[in-house]
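Here is the promised in-class demo. Please do not try to memorize the tokens; focus on the logic of going from shape to residues.
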């Protein structure tokens, strides 16, 4: 009878979402590759595989948030309407100095420059500027109406409000998905791994083998690596050397790069390249839209 071993799983709950995805996928890959006729072991591995699939589906669902499509459509509208309004006004600002309308057109263009308005701004930043510019452009409403620009600016405001609403909906649905469904999926995966480990411990006690010892070594190696590089608090960067460190970072932190796994739905990057700027800050970031008007967009 082999020496009794204990395989710990409590540390899994402290991993960020990408690290949890990559780490648990590696555990499944090693367990699935182990060849045995033990029906109970096969059942536990199959259960873990199902949990891993569910976790990946939840992650993908978060990336397919329907609010994203609404957000992109509203952003395209605010880009187009503001570009039209600005083009019209710039035409009058380019008139010869003798034309009386030129001075007011240049005053309107100065508002765009004062706000450093650009359709390259982040979703929220652009929407905020469009709405706030009304404080200054309202004084020129009669002129902008006369030249046909005001109607497009008003439509840009409507689109900007839709952007703000979509950003709020996205923040809510993403939070619900990550904090709700993702938490449930992660818990199920961790429980499936714990059940699998108990089966492995029993097999090692009753029917030890070199192959089983290799599997246990591989699984313990995954734990060692995760604790050393993902859960080490000595540097705050996950690159320290204290393998026993076990702080409790926020599981919803999507930063970091999980271990490589060919069958992992969200491993490889904690970033979503299509995620809009932070709705609370309107943080800068190219939203991919807009047309530069002869350098005017550069403020």
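The designed amino acids, position by position:
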């Amino acid at each position: 009878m082999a020496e009794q071993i204990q395989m710990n799983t409590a540390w899994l709950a402290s991993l960020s979402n990408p690290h949890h995805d990559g780490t648990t996928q590696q555990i499944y890959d090693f367990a699935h590759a182990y060849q045995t006729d033990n029906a109970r072991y096969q059942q536990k591995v199959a259960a873990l595989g199902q949990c891993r699939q569910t976790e990946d589906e939840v992650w993908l669902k978060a990336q397919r948030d329907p609010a994203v499509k609404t957000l992109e459509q509203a952003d395209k509208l605010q880009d187009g309407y503001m570009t039209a309004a600005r083009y019209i006004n710039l035409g009058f600002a380019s008139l010869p100095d003798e034309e009386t309308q030129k001075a007011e057109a240049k005053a309107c263009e100065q508002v765009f420059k004062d706000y450093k308005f650009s359709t390259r701004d982040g979703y929220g930043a652009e929407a905020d500027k469009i709405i706030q510019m009304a404080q200054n452009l309202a004084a020129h409403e009669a002129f902008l109406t006369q030249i046909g620009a005001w109607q497009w600016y008003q439509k840009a405001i409507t689109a900007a409000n839709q952007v703000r609403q979509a950003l709020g909906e996205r923040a809510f649905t993403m939070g619900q998905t990550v904090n709700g469904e993702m938490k449930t999926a992660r818990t199920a995966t961790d429980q499936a791994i714990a059940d699998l480990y108990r089966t492995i411990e029993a097999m090692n006690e009753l029917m030890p083998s070199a192959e089983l010892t290799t599997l246990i070594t591989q699984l313990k190696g995954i734990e060692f690596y995760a604790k050393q590089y993902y859960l080490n608090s000595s540097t705050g960067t996950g690159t320290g050397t204290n393998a026993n460190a076990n702080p409790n970072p926020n599981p919803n932190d999507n930063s970091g790069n999980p271990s490589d796994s060919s069958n992992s739905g969200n491993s490889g990057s904690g970033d979503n390249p299509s995620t809009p700027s932070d709705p609370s800050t309107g943080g800068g970031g190219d939203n991919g839209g807009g047309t530069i008007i002869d350098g005017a967009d550069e403020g």
